[in-house]
Amino acid sequence: MPRADFYLIDKPRFRADPLLLVCELARRAYASGQPTLILARSLEQAEEIDGKLWEFDEDAFIPHQIAGDEDDEITPVLVVPPDTATPDRPLVINLRDDCAPGLFERVLEVVPAEESQRLGSRERWKTYKHAGFELKKFDM
What we know:
Order of helices and strands: EHHEHEEEEHE
Number of helices: 4
Structural class: alpha/beta
Strand order of the largest sheet: 3-4-2-5-6-1-7
């Protein structure tokens, strides 16, 4: 059964820098050996994530790139801007307003700290539940 985990931004360090949570999730995914897609909201956000993955922890090395070239297949973590096609992967970190597309075993949904920005997350929760996903929530 596929699984959807919702990570609610709550701690001050993630409130101050929400993409830090994305980097932490990517680090965990890479450490567990799971090929991962990070679905960015825009090319600008993809570029910001790309830069942050290099600098967020000087002791961490997460092989990654922005999707779109011949190395996509061998790169463990792909940051995917909208309108960029990639093969499915077992794990998806979703930052977009819609449910993650494709076939995957697990999706990690990053939920904004601001209550006014959580409506889309609630709709995705309902959609995943209706599709038969196992659902979990984590306060981060």
